[in-house]
Amino acid sequence: MSHIYVRLSAFYFCNCVALGLILPFWGLYMEKQGYSAPEIALVSALLMLTNVIAPPVWGWWADQSGRRLTLIRWGAAAAVLCFAVNLVHSDLHLMVLAFLCCGFFWQGINAQFEALTLTLLAGQSRNYSRIRLWGSVGFVCAVSGGGWLFDQISLDQLPLLVVLSLALMWLSTMLVPQPHAKARHYPDPSPVGPLLRQPAVLLILSAIALIYFSHGTYYGFYSIYLQQHYDNSQIGLLWSLAVAAELLAFAMLPKWLKRYPLHHLLLISVGATCLRWLGLAFGADWLGVLLGCQLLHALSFSAVHACTMEWLHRRFRIQQQGRAQALYYAFCVGAGQAGGTIASGWFWQYSQQAAFLLSALIAAVALLLLMLGQHGLVSDHTDRTCAGPDH
Hints:
mainly alpha; disordered C terminus
């Protein structure tokens, strides 16, 4: 088991190192190159947009071919080559092409590696969280180490560091063994259309998409927003604090979900999300406010994600889970974050504070929708019991 643990953990670590270099620092890199806020927002949204299309395509491909690991290896190699275009020239059109192509391969293989990990851990799925934890560790290393590093060297080196991280991710896939167990299939899946047409379900899915939409300003412009008050090391540490809060929340959420009603946790988390964006809008020059806002990441991301996973597990039957997850990642996460990032770019060029106020307003609308549809969070329409967010 130990060698499987190390090999799988290496993929998650390198994967999130690359992501941890892009999210906080790519906007700073583009600003240094002279790009405008809408152009920065566009490029920042591309990885999120590819998350709408890539996972279903790669999932169908992997299921049809039965060669999941082979596809993961080829996809990882292609992601490296596509992103390497940024080493040649910083032209916007080439950058957009590189992010689109890299995102299609990168976002496509991520979901497949999750499936591969669970297959290799058959009978020991409780160890999944121990492996996935290394992704968050990699992200922390990237944002904190990157903040220090870019105070020592030029941001012009960022594309090379991302390429190296993706290359290490590809190399880690070469160490993963082929699984022997076959994935379980359900030949006659129940239709999800009738369930999706229920008003409460539509309200909840729309609210969750808006929550991710509200994160667009944070993911696209948080580092740029802080640069007028803090250096790169401090910015990296603030990102790291949010991830530390994320890890702590994920550790506590199984107990919280057993102790408190799901709809109460989700409503509190969305309310905290609204407060977080208001704090950033009005308190960027106060370090104490920033620290509190980053700690609220435990609720605005971790608790929202875990509660959504729990709700999907309860509301959709076992035969519907694949399509439910695809809907969540494509519509809520992918389209939500991409739309929020693009919208924030347009507001940003007029007022930085207005962009975060937009996020707070969107989070408030999401809270209202959840309150209207909360009876859909309370009722359980599946034919099985649930034991927390780790499925």
